[in-house]
């Protein structure tokens, strides 16, 4: 009997399982050399998987779009460090070291010296998996550079590399020298001069005008040292991180501060509605009409929301924030290490007469808690802690009167494009047999009269967006799983909500849940992955439409 061949989707699933098993093993071990024997399994599995977000990482040429995506999520200067130490919250903020925060990931990172970068991990295992995957990609690409410039085992290097090195190490680089360096880099990377110019522009900043060239130089230099066995890069996991991961320490501090604030304001017994979203959409929707009505420009609702989303309009955003504060909003900047800020809205203090909700509400004493986006498994930690009773003195714990939990998120869509809306009826947890069906208060009918594409089905909660490939996603889309999109938090949120409402009886068993996602990318379409760039103004419309549907249901429920 002939052996049945595995499908590409099955191979991809097994590769992901191997990656996570390997990362857990390395984490428990405490250290490893990513380009040595200990990192071999991780490298091979990632190359076998060929995630869409990393583009052409399996080819000889250096992958540039994936490189830009990864560098936006890693601290500046990490490419220069042969030692990377992943730590817990260990008090580095009390030192004189300046925190380095990556543009697209909220992590505190500290350059200890010229050789070592410490990366603070406070958001659980998902954060560890995320950074290890990105670093593995980065190291694989760095060795492509080394393999193209090292010409013998005695340490001989190509003339192109030597000329490039001499230019990049100058204190000042003229425009003519910069162009020469670009020519050499294009050949070293196996890319066109035009492609190199585009990436150089994407990574250019006022402080680091030649960042791209310096990144390529340091990636190549450290990889050359490894190839010539001069020095090996190493990743460390601090004892504190290994000891604390999985124990909800940050989530507990975060949740207790929120409950303490509710108690201090005397609103802890009120009906509570929790929303997981960004820090602007709920506030802007509740209060922007009061500001807009006083302005000379005749903008409609959507135009004003688009204006508020643009960086240069900070004055308008401050007017709304100040008004919100006067009318019952409390802003809690995170102090727990979760990197999740919170807004508390006491709706009894809001003037609804001049708002977009004036037709559906006159008065309510409900409270809305808006929490910023969690990251992966952190969604369970934070929601689980928030829904627990509040330990309040001699009278015993106080159960929160949670009437609803609403989750708005960005997700990859499998049938559609950027800006489309997805309405799920269940979350399927990748890599397990766990699935979480629920009754979603948001339905497709809510968007029938809106000028936007919306679809319904099931969502897959993935272990990491950077580990998805076309074969596996196509399987989930076309099979009876009927998956419409992928994200990282849904199953974790629902697991916490179900535990609190159905098992632990911490909150009402009839708590209403709302899930709605807008598409940030389509990983099945070339050029539409997360590495292709952000949403820009495309994301404004679905963000505020979802916010509107949430708030209208909440205030009707609160009457």
Number of helices: 17
Secondary-structure content class: alpha/beta
The share of residues in extended strands comes to 15-25%
Termini separation comes to 68 Å
| pLDDT averaged residue by residue | 91
Poorly predicted sequence stretches spanning 5 or more consecutive residues: none
What is the rounded Rg? 25 Å
Within the largest sheet, what's the order of strands? 1-5-2-4-3
DSSP strand tally: 15
Task: Report the major sheet.
Answer: 5 strands, mixed
Shape assignment:
globular
| Helix amount | 40-55%
Explain what this protein looks like in three dimensions.
With 559 residues, this protein is α/β, with parallel strands linked by helices. Helices cover 40% and strands 15% of the residues. The chain is built from 17 helices and 15 strands. The protein has helices at residues 8-29, 40-49, 64-71, 125-149, 159-168, 175-189, 193-203, 211-227, 239-244, 249-264, 281-292, 301-308, 314-326, 378-386, 470-478, 490-503, 540-558; strands at residues 31-32, 83-87, 109-111, 116-120, 234-237, 272-276, 329-332, 342-346, 367-371, 402-413, 421-429, 435-437, 454-461, 483-487, 512-521. The strands form two sheets. Strands 1-5-2-4-3 form a five-stranded mixed sheet. A five-stranded mixed barrel has the order 10-14-13-11-15. Helix 11 (281-292) packs across helix 12. The radius of gyration is 25 Å and the shape is globular.
